[in-house]
Structure formats: structure tokens, C-alpha cells
Amino acid sequence: xxxxxxxxxxxxxxxxxxxxxxxxxxxxxxxVALNFVSSPGSGKTSLLExxxxxxxxxxxxxMIAGDVQTENDADRLVRAGGERVKPLVTGGSCHLDAxxxxxxxxxxxxxxxxxxxxxxxxxxxxxxxxxxxxDMKVVLISTTEGDDKPLKYPAMFxxxxxxxxxxxxxxxxxxxxxxTVRRNALSINPDLKIFEVSCRSxxxxxxWYAWLRELVSERTPAALVES
Length: 227
Hints:
- 42% of the residues lie in helices and 18% in strands.
- The protein has 9 helices and 7 strands; from the N terminus they run αβαβαβαββααβαβαα.
- A 7-stranded parallel β-sheet has the order 3-2-4-1-5-6-7, sandwiched between helices.
- β2 (61-67), α3 and β3 form a beta-alpha-beta unit.
- The model is unreliable at 222-227 (pLDDT under 50).
């Protein structure tokens, strides 16, 4: 048992070293990096599609689309207008890690990118323990799931900075309660910033877009913004 624990420590230590290198490199380039995490089907790709459609001509956005077996999500993002989208197929691994991100970034032109979004594998367990060099994690939950998700997967919500509640257009079709999920999430992480959105109806997306604009403007030098 002790041997397994030691191996895990070495893996995480190496991951943290690589993640620190990624973070330093991205900050030197004034790039904001977000790590999107959720369970399967919460709507990560749908939110990213809507984000590209709304902000793709305004912000210089690059995306890494993680998936276990296919490039389907990457293809969807390209069709939504993504000009710099790279698929990252894990071949069975339940999470992305910093080594994978390092490999993809070495093959991407990100010199003038303002916002890098990493779409992680659909999983609320494994990805919580792996730093990818991001500025923050964004966790999505949908109204088609249980409102106790934050209590069942506390590590993910504790390590995230933002929670997006998606599919609010479906409220009332199940027992999901927004106030309950908010209360549960904030009991784990009182500092969580929370958005309520519907990628289908567009509800709440303007606030989401405004937050992304502000995030990028805080990182981007004024001279670059004005140009």
C-alpha cells in the first residue's frame, strides 16, 4: 500500500512541476487559462460553442478539447467558429494532465492568444487532482443532475473558482433545486462565483460573456487592448 502511495506522490509532483512551467509560460504571454470540468453531459461543449459564436471575433481564443476516445467535441468547436482548436484524446484516461497539455501547447500557435480554454474529460473525480497550469477551474453542473453534486464531489468544487449551472430552461422537469445546489456548493467553497445559464435559450449568457471579457481585459496590457 505504501508503495502505491509513493508512486502517486511522484506522479503528482511531476505534474505540478510541469503545470508550474505552463502557468509561467502563459502568464508571460498574457494568456488567461481556464480548465473546464464537469460530469458527462453537463454541457461544457455547448457552452464553449456559444462562447465562440459570441466572442470569437472579439477575443483571440484557443481551445484544447479533451476526450477519452473521439475528436467529436473538437469538431463541434471548429464548426462553431473556433480557429485554434486542438483535440486531445486520452485513449482511456479519465483526466487530462500537465504532460498532455505541454505536448499539445508545443504544437499550437498561441503567441497572440488572449484566452485559452481547456475542456477536460467528463469526470468530477480524477481531474480535481491534476493542475494543468490554468488560472482557475470552472465547474459545470446541469439541472438534469442531482443538486447534491457538490456534496458528493467536494474536491472538485473546493478547487474550482467558478460554478456554472447549465440547462436552467429545464427547471421544473426534475427535482433539481437551484437554491439547494447553490447552498451545497457554497458550503464547500464560499468563494465560488456562480452563473445560471441556458445554452439553449441564451438565458444568463450575457453575464457569462461579460465576465470573460473582464477576465481577459485584466490580464491584457492596455496598449494591446486599444490596438
